[in-house]
Design goal:
With 260 residues, the protein is α/β, with parallel strands linked by helices. It folds into two domains: 189 residues, Rossmann fold (3-Layer(aba) Sandwich); 55 residues, N-terminal domain of TfIIb (Single Sheet), CATH 2.20.25. It contains six helices and eleven strands. Strands 3-2-1-4-5-11-10 form a seven-stranded mixed beta sheet, with helices on both faces. Strands 6-7-8-9 form a four-stranded antiparallel beta sheet, with helices on one face. α5 crosses α6. The longest helix is centred in the N-terminal third of the chain and has 15 residues. This is Bifunctional 3-demethylubiquinone-9 3-methyltransferase/ 2-octaprenyl-6-hydroxy phenol methylase. Keywords: Methyltransferase, Transferase, Ubiquinone.
């Protein structure tokens, strides 16, 4: 049976499904901090932290981490894992449009499309203002998202599987709706959890609405906020030595912003 529930509320599976790039993403965050900060970062903030896979990875490297998320189940799971591993940090149930950190952060990051859950320009600006207020001057905000170039196919489908211990997690992603005029798309995630014998144990299906971005809209958004300077742009290969030009040639895009 497929349950139409929020996949984000099952972080023990969701984080495993997206965990293969955790080290690569964390390496990039650390490398960007070293490249662009003129101070030694200690406090890291993740709006939309989910179950905390990046919080855990970065805390294990000695950083003091803080995360925000709307999912109570994900926040509870993240805090349990931090405590279990005796790591410094915490997650809180909070809206990334208006949350307040416990202390100013040195670096904030929001990777792999979480930013696109902000469906209007107003909500995106409110979020950027919130993060700017949460950062020290000169601090970084690293934002990663899939953009839709003007000539890109609006239909998309991806499938992958991850095996961890005796569990296999199969993920299928489909674009079920896309409208460039309203800058909206809907992504359907289907997640199947199987045991060591390949028998399905849990099946989940969730539709998530996302905002669409092209290069110039993203650039314009950051300029409207006025609190950030766009330093460089990368792709999801996360090669800190290979910054790219922001253009409609880019699909998977990582923005490195600095708090003015």
């Amino acid at each position: 049976m497929t349950y139409a529930v929020d996949c984000y509320d099952h972080p023990q599976y969701w984080d495993l499904a997206f965990g293969e790039d955790t080290k690569l993403e964390a390496d990039f965050i650390v490398a960007a901090a070293k490249k662009y900060c003129d101070f030694e970062p200690q406090r890291l903030l993740e709006p939309g932290c989910g179950g905390g896979r990046l919080l855990l990875e970065l805390a294990s490297r000695g950083y003091l981490v803080e995360g925000w998320d709307l999912s109570e189940a994900a926040v509870q799971y993240a805090n349990q894992q931090l405590a279990k591993q005796n790591l410094q940090g915490q997650a809180a149930v909070a809206d990334m449009q208006n949350a307040t950190p416990t202390e100013p952060a040195d670096v904030a990051y929001c990777l792999v499309n979480t930013f696109r859950h902000l469906l209007t320009e107003e909500s995106a600006i409110a979020h950027l203002k919130t993060v700017a207020a949460a950062l020290r001057p000169g601090g970084l905000y690293i934002v990663g998202m899939h953009m839709l170039p003007p000539d890109a196919d609006e239909d998309d489908e991806e499938e992958w599987a991850v095996e961890v211990d005796d569990v296999t997690i199969e993920i299928k992603l489909d674009v079920t709706f896309c409208c460039r005029r309203t800058r909206r798309e809907t992504l359907r995630f289907e997640m199947i959890v199987k045991d060591s014998a390949g028998r399905p144990q849990h099946e989940f299906q969730t539709d998530y609405d996302m905002r669409l971005y092209e290069a110039e809209e993203a650039r314009s958004l950051f300029e409207k906020v006025g609190d950030f300077e766009l330093l460089d742009v990368y792709d999801f290969w996360y090669d800190i030595d290979e910054p790219l030009e922001l253009s409609d040639e880019l699909g998977d895009t990582v923005f490195v912003l600095r708090r003015k």
